[in-house]
Amino acid sequence: MTGPSAPRSHGRLALRPSAQPRDLMAESRVAAGAWTARVITLFPDAFPGTLGLSLTGKALEMGLWALEAIDLRPLGEGRHRNVDDTPAGGGAGMVLRADVMHRALEIASAGTPVDRASWPTVYLSPRGKPFTQAMARDWAQAQGVTLICGRFEGVDQRVIDHWAVEEVSLGDFVLTGGEIAAQALIDATVRLIPRVLGNQMSAEEESFSEGLLEFPQYTRPPLWEGRAIPDILLSGHHAKITDWRRGQAERLTKQRRPDLWRAYCAAHGRDPDEDREL
Predict the structure, then answer these.
(1) Domains along the sequence of the chain with CATH
(2) What is the rounded distance in angstroms from the CA atom of residue 69 to the CA atom of residue 43?
(3) Mind spelling out the 3-state secondary structure of the chain?
């Protein structure tokens, strides 16, 4: 493919139109080996979006990770570049064509490893398995990920099967397209890449890192609207502070996410119905 079908790249890595996608890992010494997200979308201008802000945006400019948006429209059929058609068997809406998506996946797969663990290919779908922090950690340890942003009624099942695409869901709700979900999944993954956050302890202490929700956080002023910071946090006794935070995390998880609490207890040989004071 030539011209507009070439991926649009963001950050330190810039692509020029070519017959084949350029090897992003060799574009810049700074970005050599950088984790890369390739996003197949009808709306490439939606990227980088919020990913270009704050720490993820700074890391993108530094070349700690790279982002490519592959525009689906120029790969469409006919004079009008049609990318969808009516559902076989009837029904409402439109379905993204298998042949068009296949062309996009061919572009997205250029230069990627065969091993899917090293470069997952994912369709953002409400029927997929739920995205988790553990999945984000696995993706962050890979070389990159390809994300398919669906539209309309979804993608022709044949291309999903042909490419053995993994289906992943952001949650039990439906969006008009996968672009917002893609940004959320990329953000969750990129922040786990070394040097992106700056303080890696932040990623180690936050919600889901150990299967628990995060403990409550406080900062100045010590007294606000009659509410004081818990005395233990001002005591300077780090062992007691750690114990308090662990207890708070367990209490919150048990109250708000019984599913996570049961999984945590199973992993640690504990009874989820124990009367232990939390």
Answers:
(1) 3-190 (3.40.1280.10), 206-267 (1.10.1270.20)
(2) 8
(3) CCHHHCCEEECCCCCCCCCCCCCHHHCCCCCCCCEEEEEEECCHHHCCHHHHCHHHHHHHHHCCEEEEEEECHHHCECCCCECEECCCCCCCCCEECHHHHHHHHHHHHCCCCCCCCCCCEEEEEEEEEECCHHHHHHHHCCCEEEEEECECCCECHHHHHHCCCEEEECCCCCCCECHHHHHHHHHHHHCCCCCCCCCHHHHHHCCCCCCCCCCCCCCCCCEECCEECCHHHHCCCHHHHHHHHHHHHHHHHHHHCHHHHHHHHHHCCCCCCCCCCC
What whole-number distance in Å separates Cα of residue 45 and Cα of residue 105? Answer: 19
Q: Alpha-carbon distance 122 to 164, whole Å?
A: 9
C-alpha distances in angstroms, 106 versus 70, 220, 261? 11, 53, 42
Six-digit token string for 27 = 């574009």
Q: How far is CA 120 from CA 16, 186, 220, in A?
A: 25, 12, 43
> Token digits for 130?
């739920």
236-241, Cβ contacts within 8 angstroms, sequence gap of 24 or more = none
Integer Cα distance of 8 and 10 in angstroms: 7
* Dist. CA 2–CA 101, nearest whole Å: 16
Q: What residue ranges of the chain have pLDDT lower than 70?
A: 1-6, 10-31, 199-207, 209, 275-278
Residues shown for the chain: 278
| CA 71 vs CA 46, 74, 76, 87, 185: distances in Å | 11, 7, 10, 23, 19
pLDDT per position as a tens digit, 225-255: 999 999 999 999 999 999 999 999 999 999 9
Pick the closest to residue 83 from 25, 14, 156, 12 (CA basis).
156
